UniProtKB/TrEMBL annotation:
It comes from Clostridium hominis. The chain crosses the membrane at residues 25-46. Keywords: Coiled coil, Membrane, Transmembrane, Transmembrane helix. It is found in: Cell envelope. The keyword Transmembrane applies. Residues 112-171 form a coiled coil. It comes from the Bacteria. This is HlyD family efflux transporter periplasmic adaptor subunit. PANTHER family: EFFLUX SYSTEM COMPONENT YKNX-RELATED (PTHR32347). InterPro entries: UPF0194_transport (IPR050465).
Amino acid sequence: MKQKVKKIINFEYVKKGKDTLQKKAVKYLGAFLLIMIGCTMLSRFADSLTIPVIKTEKPKVKTMVDEVKASGRVVKNREEKISIIEGLKIEYVNVSIGTLIKTGDVLVELNTEALQKKIDEINENISSEEKTLARAKEDYNRAIASKNSNVSNALEEMNKAKKALEDYQALPEEEKDKAMEESLKGDYESKKSMHASAVAEANDTVDLDRTLQDVKDSLKLDEYYEELGKLQPLLDANGKVTSPKEGIVTSVFAENGGVTSDAVVSIADKESGYKFVGQIESSKRTTVKQGQTVALKLSSGGYVENLTIEAISKSEESADFLNVTVVLPAGTGEIDDTGEIIISSQAKKYSTCVPLAALRQGENNSYYVLAVGEKETVLGSEKVARKYEVQIEKKDNEFAALKEGSFSRSEQVIISSNKTVEDGDRVRLETE
């Protein structure tokens, strides 16, 4: 047995004869095929590294709601300026923007010395102008009295002439002189005419009225009295300007050591509540109507339903947007809280809905999707991307509803890939 094993180990191949041409051809062909198979496998492996790996999804039937969201913020519903006389010196400003104030809270404190000086100046102006007005009235009354005196004198002269004529006419005929009678008649008619002229002149007071009115117009007594009526209470309150109502300060127009303008602060009336102003694209105007019921979601966590759209107006910031305004119930939100109005209308079922990730932008604002197709090659069947032009009927936050007939529900639409994919490119499913 040991000898047999040793014989086998020491076996040497003894070539019995030379290879024929046919044997050599077979050997070369086999080697060639082995090389081709290796190259094909290597090519397939390299190709698998370059082919995009994709995820797909079939279109779905989905119910969508015509929901529009208008992002914005809480603003004052009604704002009121606390007015004051301009030019008063300010000692202290006791509020700032956002300060919550109650009725009677001190907003600013004025310099009482400057306030007293201002009142004294107004009183001097009132005294001076009252004297001017009094003199103008005296002149007016004197002129009227003169006209009335002329009328009285003319009437007296006319009556004397009339009596003289009547007395002469009462004499016996033998005592009358025709020339004398004519002279008395002429005198009476003359005095009568003079009386009529005096009466007409007395009734014509246009020039006198105009002169008096011009003097009144040149005076500022009404303004001075009005200003004094505002200043005196401030002095009586030691220069403290207080709030007439409860609210929140939205603007401050005063500063320490400065002077007052026409107002010191603006206050949002808290009792009237606030309003929320959100913006939507102008293209969505048909989905929003005044009086429509909406909901409001605030970033602070508040959620309010059954609010009503009070107004829809053009945005001053951009012509491409609209402002949508809803009034908030008292106690809802605070100034500058952010959030969004949720505007919903009737729901509708769509039979062909694809994820938004599947949509691709084409030319002229068109859209298309890529689906997985089959292509026959010499190496067998391959998966390729196929382009389909689509029309969109509706979108929500996740899906787009395609117009019926623009895409088949049986197709697998590409929703993602690890490389850029174009129409006709070879693709490989992620699960392969």
